[in-house]
Write a structure and sequence with these properties.
Elements (H helix, E strand, L loop, with lengths): L9 E2 L2 E2 L27 H4 L16 H10 L2
Length: 74
């Protein structure tokens, strides 16, 4: 596997491969997209909201005590 690098505009979800890389036509490739920071989502939009998450792993038990028991096994 080898890497090439070029810049291109994305139009309607399509990136055109430059003519100098025409040999890549009809081949499989791993694509990495890097964009400028201003188009990245804000941290507020990208953050996870776990407020409605219900975790049942420690239900009815003290989570700190469970951790202490786990450490004692070592």
């Amino acid at each position: 596997m080898y890497a090439i690098e070029f810049e291109a505009d994305i139009q309607d979800g399509v990136v055109k491969i430059p003519p100098e890389y025409s040999r890549l036509r009809n081949s499989h490739a791993k694509i990495v997209v890097m964009v400028r920071d201003e188009s990245a989502p804000s941290p507020e939009a990208a953050s996870l909201d776990l407020s409605n998450l219900r975790v049942e792993a420690f239900q009815g038990r003290d989570a700190v005590e469970v951790q202490r028991e786990m450490r004692d096994e070592w």
